[in-house]
Design goal:
Helix content: 40-55%
Distance between the termini: 73 Å
Shape: globular
Radius of gyration: 22 Å
CATH class of the largest domain: Alpha Beta
Number of helices: 11
Structural class: alpha/beta
Strand content: 15-25%
Mean pLDDT: 89
Order of helices and strands: HEHEHEHEEHEHEHEHEEHHH
Oligomer: single chain
Largest sheet: 5 strands, mixed
């Protein structure tokens, strides 16, 4: 019995010591970053930008894996069920952790308590735009067309449950216009049909539409930023047009499964905040109308709770139109 106990204690001590050493050495291997959307969209681009900088600081590769099936639920569930060891993370945000649980009955997860929310990245405002061949020149023209057409306005967004979808539906609810979504599985696919003229109206992020607006393929009608953007100074904000509750951005963040150790969370949060000072990140933010807003993990979690509350109220109003 003494030999058994001695062996047990030695084995247990070795296991605990190994676990402690592994925790101290994090990261000791590459990190998996799940993006629950298709490649080419705003969240994917931002995720890859930050992954590159954080990889350099950690000395380990962060490889990005797109899991867009199931409306993003596949990727979300992959992370939710992963071991909380800091080696499986995800690009989370307004679409995945605020809007999806509110709009998708198959989203059986708690957006706050089922995850560790690590860092806020930021995001671009949403743009209401039309193809350059459209007769719509202004927001007033858009309203007139929407009210004149019995079928309402058919529009594209990156997909059901995305910010573009919700902003358009909420705006239609407030203006008395029927908005009909043509669903896509990501902003990259939707923008192709929009700039080719197959569809005339889009509600998408500024980062996805910017180059096409500046090239003249798309015409901006209104934007959800708090202030007008320097690139399109003649485009009014929805706040100016009477919708202060539609000052919003499609924000993204980094999260992981529930229970990631505090020291790993703190390290990742620190590296995200330090990335805000990198020249290419600053240039990316300036180009896409994104404002850096460094938050601690605790502050970010509280921010997410407020966003869930706000959008729950907005969507309840929209669904009762």
């Amino acid at each position: 019995m003494r030999k058994f106990l001695r062996a047990f204690l030695v084995g247990t001590s070795f296991f605990l010591l190994s676990a402690a050493v592994e925790a101290q050495q994090w990261p000791a291997k590459p990190i998996r970053l799940i993006v629950p959307w298709a490649a080419g969209g705003a969240g994917d681009v931002m995720g890859r930008l930050f992954a590159d900088h954080i990889s350099k600081k950690l000395g380990q590769q962060i490889y990005v894996e797109n899991q867009a099936s199931g409306g993003g639920l596949t990727g979300i569930q992959t992370v939710m069920r992963a071991a909380p060891d800091g080696y499986t993370l995800m690009i989370s945000g307004l679409p995945s952790h605020v809007l999806t649980p509110l709009m998708n009955e198959n989203a059986k997860f708690d957006p706050i308590h089922d995850f560790t929310h690590i860092a806020y990245l930021g995001g671009p405002p949403n743009l209401l735009c039309v193809h350059s061949s459209s007769e719509i020149q202004t927001y007033a023209d858009f309203l007139a067309m929407g009210r004149a057409e019995k079928a309402g306005v058919h529009y594209v967004s990156p997909g059901l449950g995305t910010t573009g979808n919700v902003v358009a539906e909420y705006l239609g609810h407030k203006e008395g216009i029927q908005m009909s979504l043509i669903p896509y599985k990501g902003g990259g696919q939707a923008i192709v049909d929009l700039i080719s003229g197959h569809v005339k109206v889009g509600s998408m992020t500024w980062s996805t539409t910017r180059e096409h607006v500046l090239a003249g393929s798309l015409r901006p009608i209104a934007i959800t930023s708090a202030e007008r953007l320097a690139d399109i100074p003649n485009t009014p904000t929805l706040k100016e047009l009477g919708h202060p509750d539609l000052v919003t951005v499609t924000w993204f963040s980094i999260s992981g499964p529930r229970g990631i150790p505090d020291d790993i969370v703190a390290r990742l949060n620190k590296e995200v905040i330090s990335a805000f000072e990198e020249p290419d990140v600053k240039a990316f933010f300036a180009r896409d109308g994104i404002k850096a807003d460094p938050m601690s993990s605790a502050d970010f979690t509280q921010f997410m709770q407020r966003e869930v509350s706000m959008w729950t109220s907005a969507l309840k109003a929209t669904m009762t139109k």
